[in-house]
Amino acid sequence: MPESRASKPPPLLFQNARLVDPATGSETLGGLLALDGRIADIGPEATFAPEGARVIDCGGDVVAPGLIDMQAFVGEPGAEHRETIATASLAAAAGGVTTILASPTTSPVVDDPAVVDFVLRRARDTGRVRVLPMAALTKGCAGREIAEYGLLQQAGAACFSDGGRSVANALVMRYALTYARGFDALVAHFPQDRDLAGGGVMNEGETAMRLGLAGVPGEAETIALDRDLRLVALTGARYHATILAAPQSLDAFRAAKARGLPVTCGTTINHLTLNEADIGHYRTFLKLRPPLRCEEDRVTLVRALAEGLIDVIVSDHDPQDVETKRLPFGEAEFGAIGLETMLAAGLRLVHSGAVTLPRLLAAMSSRPAEILRLEQGRLQKGAPADLIRFDPDEPFVVDPEKLHSRCRNTPFDEALLQGVVKLTMVAGEVVYEA
What we know:
Elements: E1 12-21, E2 26-35, E3 38-43, E4 54-57, E5 62-65, E6 67-72, H1 85-94, E7 97-102, H2 113-126, E8 130-133, E9 135-136, H3 149-155, E10 160-161, H4 170-182, E11 186-189, H5 194-197, E12 202-203, H6 206-211, E13 215-216, H7 219-235, E14 238-241, H8 247-258, E15 263-268, H9 269-273, H10 295-307, E16 312-314, H11 322-325, H12 342-351, H13 357-372, E17 387-397, E18 416-426, E19 429-433
Parallel strand pairs: 1-4, 1-5, 6-7, 7-8, 9-10, 11-14, 12-13, 14-15, 15-16
Antiparallel strand pairs: 1-2, 2-3, 5-17, 17-18, 18-19
Keywords: Pyrimidine biosynthesis, Zinc
Domain Amidohydrolase: 353-432
Pfam families: Amidohydro_3, DHOase
């Protein structure tokens, strides 16, 4: 990681920038000085460049905090054929993501302090951005026995999750929440009743019937979420629902927040910008877990994001190789890459007027930082200089061959997007520049 390198990065002054601080919702025109890895000055009066500083005239481009992706699969250890920390962090930097939460569902699973240490060391040696390991909620992510949270947290685990696997046993989930509360640790859980989801591969409804594919009802998510929220009320633990896609779940979450429960939730950029109709003629790159829902459900998710009910947007970056995706839809693996396109896809919502730019960036930076208790995610003096510069209006066509991930399973293949990242900075050091 940049912050571990011996030499300090030179000062850098952004001029004529549109400064967007999602932590406060403010937008101003002015400058920003990054010095010794932190924001030294910001605002209309920030025009002084120290000796040896690099000066960049942004020409009205946005300068904002770097994005924090709370769910991404980085491949190491054990799945380097799908992704590595080096390739994932390069894709992240190119997409404006400066911090990645790495999924624990590797091989071996991140359920031992030694594996946490391995991920941190690999990130330090080969990563361009910050990589924070998620540790397993249960041993082997098998859902039967809780992991050693104290030792894993001490080793550097940012939170506890079984990735895209749901803990089916309510008693195990209660133990997990109770134990996590003792360490003030965050439990990040994917709510899905696996039995009710069954062998479903897409949203249950007319489209699934027409395509002849087994469907997953929204209740598979809502029933598991309702159980989790009741257990949170029982235990008082900090809880984050990693991905919500069913509108029924939003009502339950709204009620839980109104009760003051320590709960937050996220959704993916795919579920905010795509729907089941985009699957078309069995496009396996859009086979996702949870499945893409109907257009009405997508619009409901966007409204929940705009009002602040949905706290976080994630890429759910899940690289899959050709052998697992070039199969009949029902047999193909779930998952899509998304680190590099998350911001540009999200800007669709801004250009359509559905959400404001500060609100979008808050769900991708300042709110994840608050949930994870990180310093990043704000444009304020003294904050870490994890920054991005991008033009929100510049168009481009997504070419999978030009993406930096090791795999090419993007749901936005050949899509026209707007929003080109021109520079990404981590701890004051430029790690990507277009």
